[in-house]
Write a structure and sequence with these properties.
The chain is α/β, with parallel strands linked by helices. The chain has 7 helices and 8 strands; from the N terminus they run E-E-E-E-H-H-H-H-E-H-E-E-H-E-H.
C-alpha cells in the first residue's frame, strides 16, 4: 500500500514500542505494537525504506487489511475472516423469509436498474400494501441516569455525544417497557464493539443471572466485552449473519431457560427485515 513518511503534529512523538507511522486521517500515530528493532508495524512497514523490498497486498478474504504477498498462503490459514466450521445455531437462510429449505431465494436487483414502467408498478404495489397503515412516527426520545456522567464529560466530542444520546434513549425505552432487569438474556444484534450491551450492563449494576449475547457478522476491533470479564454478567460473542441465526439452538438459551430481550443500534434495513421475519416465524 502507498505510504508516506510521518508528518509533524501537535502531540509530539509516537509512544515507545508503537508504530511511527502518522495516520493523517486520524491525526495521530498508529498505535500498533512493533517488533523489536523496528519503527513500523506490519501494516505500515512500507513506510520504512529498508522494508520496501517486500510487497504488501490486500487480503482476499477481507480487504480491510493487508498482508505480505510472499506470506499470503500462510496468512489465509489463520486469517480471522476465513471460513470456519458452522456452529449448531447456523441454519442457512432461516430468517430469509423462505417457506421451506428447498426454496431458492429471489435474485435481488438494484432499484436503479429498473425501467420506468417497473418502478411505477413497484410504487403501486407498495401503496396498496401500505394502505390503511398509520405511518406516523412518534418521538420516544428518552435518557437514562447510567449515562449521565459520560454525557456531561467534556472529553467527549460531538460524534461521541451523538452515540451516547442514542444509547441513553434506548436504555430509557427498555426501562419504560419493564425489560431492564435481572435473570434474562440480552441479545444485541449488529453489536459492533458491543457498547450498547456495555451500557445496559452498567445500568443493571450487580443484577444476578444476566447474560449478554453479542451478534456481529464481521470481526470487530476494540471490543468493550473485555471490560466485563470479572463481573457477574456473562458476555458471549457470536460471529454470524442474522440471516442464518437460529436463537433456539444457542446453548445458553436452550439450556438456561432465560427470557430473551433483543436490542440493537446499528442494524441496517436488511438486517432489520431478517429480525422481523424471525419474529413472524416465532
Amino acid at each position: 500500500m502507498a505510504a508516506s513518511a510521518p508528518t509533524p503534529h501537535a502531540t509530539g512523538f509516537p509512544t515507545e514500542g508503537r508504530c511511527s507511522y502518522y495516520v493523517e486521517k486520524k491525526k495521530r500515530f498508529c498505535r500498533m505494537v512493533v517488533a523489536a528493532g523496528k519503527r513500523f508495524c506490519g501494516e505500515h512497514a512500507g513506510a520504512a525504506e529498508e522494508e520496501n523490498t517486500r510487497k504488501r497486498i490486500l487480503c482476499p478474504l477481507d480487504p480491510k487489511h493487508t498482508v505480505y504477498e510472499d506470506q499470503l498462503e500462510k496468512h489465509l490459514k489463520k486469517c480471522n475472516s476465513r471460513e470456519k466450521p458452522k456452529p449448531d445455531f447456523f441454519i442457512q437462510d432461516i430468517n430469509a423469509g423462505l417457506e421451506d429449505e428447498t426454496e431458492v431465494p429471489e435474485q435481488l436487483v438494484p432499484i436503479s436498474s429498473l425501467s420506468e414502467e417497473q418502478l411505477e408498478n413497484l410504487t403501486k404495489k407498495l401503496r396498496k400494501a401500505s394502505a390503511g397503515l398509520d405511518s406516523t412516527l412518534k418521538d420516544h426520545t428518552m435518557s437514562h441516569p447510567a449515562l449521565h456522567d459520560a454525557l456531561n464529560d467534556p472529553k467527549n466530542g460531538d460524534p461521541a455525544i451523538k452515540h451516547l444520546k442514542q444509547q441513553a434513549s434506548i436504555l430509557g425505552n427498555i426501562e419504560k417497557l419493564n425489560l431492564l432487569g435481572p435473570r434474562r438474556c440480552f441479545v444485541e444484534f449488529g453489536a459492533g464493539k458491543g457498547k450498547l450491551s456495555h451500557w445496559v450492563d452498567i445500568a443493571l449494576k450487580d443484577a444476578e443471572k444476566v447474560h449478554f449475547i453479542l451478534v456481529e457478522k464481521v470481526t470487530t476491533r476494540f471490543k468493550v466485552d473485555g471490560k466485563h470479564r470479572k463481573k457477574n454478567s456473562v458476555f458471549e460473542r457470536l460471529q454470524i449473519d442474522i440471516q442464518h441465526l437460529c436463537l433456539s439452538k444457542i446453548p445458553v438459551l436452550r439450556e438456561g431457560n432465560l427470557p430473551v430481550v433483543g436490542i440493537g443500534k446499528h442494524l441496517c434495513g436488511v438486517a432489520t427485515g431478517f429480525l422481523l421475519l424471525k419474529k413472524r416465524r416465532k
